[in-house]
């Protein structure tokens, strides 16, 4: 990877990891499964909206998003909780992508240079869909990949499709864990690691056939 592009990636990761280092322990203590539910219930009928705000806030704050998704499943059941969890993951990704695409390119160009930014664009043109879909189940990387996708101007249709392939199984898996009362996320991690790849593989082939048919 080009050194200037590496610098851009490292700065993005540092901006995401630093809040975890400073406030991560406090957020994990406050937003336990029970704590997340209690905080959202404080919003009354708008508890679902509070859950979405927490998931979108994960872009800049060390919010344990999978715990919040489990709390949504605990409160609303696996289906509606899964819908809310998946929607929150989608909103988080779309927000990071949109902000970086529309407001971050100038700064990225100054950091990485025109050549470094072109390398990022080439990387995402080749495998951006896979990166976006598979990154949703990992810690830290979802926000960084969504930001890089925006900076690299990954096609919106590709980004949204890949984001859905990652967010839907993630949201429903953790909502199901919360609904069933399990705190161990191993099952959800397994499902959300495998299913996004399968979904994106199908979507990738369908998009390829659509493009060839035009």
What's the arrangement of secondary structure elements?
Blueprint lengths: L2 H28 L2 H9 L5 H11 L7 H39 L1 H31 L5 H11 L4 H25 L5 H28 L1
Structure description:
Helices cover 85% and strands 0% of the residues. The protein has 214 residues and is mainly α. It has one domain. The longest helix is centred in the middle third of the chain and has 39 residues, at 65-103. It is globular, with a radius of gyration of 17 Å.
Strand content: under 5%
Largest sheet: none
Low-confidence stretches: none
Using DSSP, what is the number of strands? 0
What spatial form do the alpha-carbon principal axes imply?
globular
Number of domains: 1
Helix count? 8
- Which series of helices and strands comes N to C? HHHHHHHH
Average pLDDT reading? 81
Distance between the termini: 34 Å
Helix fraction bin: over 70%
CA radius of gyration: 17 Å
| Structure classification | mainly alpha
List keywords for this structure.
single chain, 214 residues, mainly alpha, 85% helix
Question: How would you concisely characterize the structure shown here?
Answer:
The chain has 214 residues and is mainly alpha-helical. The protein has eight helices and no strands. It has helices at residues 3-30, 33-41, 47-57, 65-103, 105-135, 141-151, 156-180, 186-213.
């Amino acid at each position: 990877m080009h050194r200037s592009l590496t610098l851009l990636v490292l700065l993005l990761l540092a901006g995401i990891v630093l809040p975890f280092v400073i406030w991560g322990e406090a957020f994990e203590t406050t937003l336990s499964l029970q704590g997340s539910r209690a905080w959202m219930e404080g919003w009354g009928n708008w508890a679902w909206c509070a859950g979405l705000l927490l998931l979108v806030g994960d872009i800049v704050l060390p919010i344990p998003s999978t715990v919040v998704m489990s709390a949504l499943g605990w409160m609303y059941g696996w289906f509606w909780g899964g819908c809310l969890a998946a929607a929150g993951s989608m909103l988080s990704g779309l927000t990071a992508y949109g902000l970086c695409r529309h407001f971050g390119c100038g700064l990225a160009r100054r950091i990485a240079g025109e050549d470094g930014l072109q390398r990022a664009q080439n990387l995402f043109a080749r495998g951006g869909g896979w990166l976006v879909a598979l990154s949703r189940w990992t810690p830290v990387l979802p926000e960084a990949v969504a930001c890089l996708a925006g900076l690299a101007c990954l096609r919106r249709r590709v980004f949204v499709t890949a984001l859905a392939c990652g967010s839907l199984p993630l949201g429903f898996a953790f909502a199901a864990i919360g609904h069933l009362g399990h705190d161990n996320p191993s099952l959800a991690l397994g499902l959300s690691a495998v299913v996004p790849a399968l979904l994106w593989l199908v979507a990738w082939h369908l998009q390829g056939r659509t493009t060839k048919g035009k």
